[in-house]
Every structure is written in C-alpha cells, then in structure tokens.
Amino acid sequence: MSDIIWTRLSQMRDAEALMELDKLVWEENTSPTPIVWKSREHYLQKCPPGTQLIAGVGDRICGYVGFDYPTPLESNRHVYELNIAVHPDYQGRGIGRTLMEAIKEMAAERGVRKLCLRVLASNPGGLAFYKKCGFVEQGRLVEEFWIGGRYVDDILMWCPVAGH
C-alpha cells in the first residue's frame, strides 16, 4: 500500500466516510458538543460537495479541512473559516500538514487573504498543530463553554495567506 497522500475537493460519494470521520474526531476535548448527522441528506445540506478538501492514502479518506466564509457579507469574502479533522489512525503522518498546505494554496488562488479557525483550550495537540502551521491567537473567549464539568476557553486563531 502506498503512503502517498492525495488531496481533492469533496464529492457526493464521500459523504458516508466524512460522516464516520466526524464521529471519530469530534469529542469533548475537540468540540463543544458532539457532531451528530441525522442522515446523509442532513450532512450534505451542511457540507455540500466542494466545501471541503479531503486527504487520503490509497483508497481511504484520512482527513478533511472544511472551508467557508465566516459571514454572508461581501465585505468578508477575503476570509475563510476552517475546520479540520484527521482520522485518529492517521494522526502524526502528515495528513493535517498536507491539508493545511493545500488549503493555503487554494485560498491564494481564489484571492482569499486570511484563514481563521477556532480551537478549544482543552485541545493542546490541536493548538500546537495550528501554531506549527503558522496560525497565531487573535482572541480568546474565556470560559466560553461548560464541557465535562469544567469551563473551557474558545481560542480564535488566524493566519495570513501568502502572496497577499
């Protein structure tokens, strides 16, 4: 089996694999609440094809980075808000880094100047990963969530897109 990581935009046929990935990744240290998809149709309404870059090895989808404008305002079209998930079995193998490099390249091609994301303070691995990818803290919502019997900060991060 090849260890070459590929990326492409999501397609309709990826829905089930991406829904399963969400079940594995989004838990109380990585999300304020579990992500539960009622159906394939529900998933596709919220995450239509082409709104995620997916990465894989061989024929297996190993991760994704979702991207969208933070608001519907025309004045906010230079920003992508991201969410990223990597299958637990593939973490530490370069999937996340490959996805971040691919989204930065795609954003630059589309004229996007800024990438932003949110990460819970209870996710130190995610926070360290984002910093390695060039993201810096731009704000913090202190004690924003009550998760697992404790208050958790929501950290807002951003990264400029090269060439802008």
From TrEMBL:
Keyword Transferase among UniProt keywords: yes
PROSITE patterns per record: GNAT (PS51186)
Gene3D superfamilies in the cross-refs: 3.40.630.30
Gene Ontology molecular function: any one: acyltransferase activity, transferring groups other than amino-acyl groups
Domain N-acetyltransferase, chain residue ranges per copy: 5-162
Matches recorded under CDD domains: NAT_SF
Keyword tags: Acyltransferase, Transferase
One Pfam family recorded for the sequence: Acetyltransf_1
Keyword Acetylation: no
Matches recorded under PANTHER family: AMINOALKYLPHOSPHONATE N-ACETYLTRANSFERASE-RELATED-RELATED
The protein's name in its UniProt record: GNAT family N-acetyltransferase
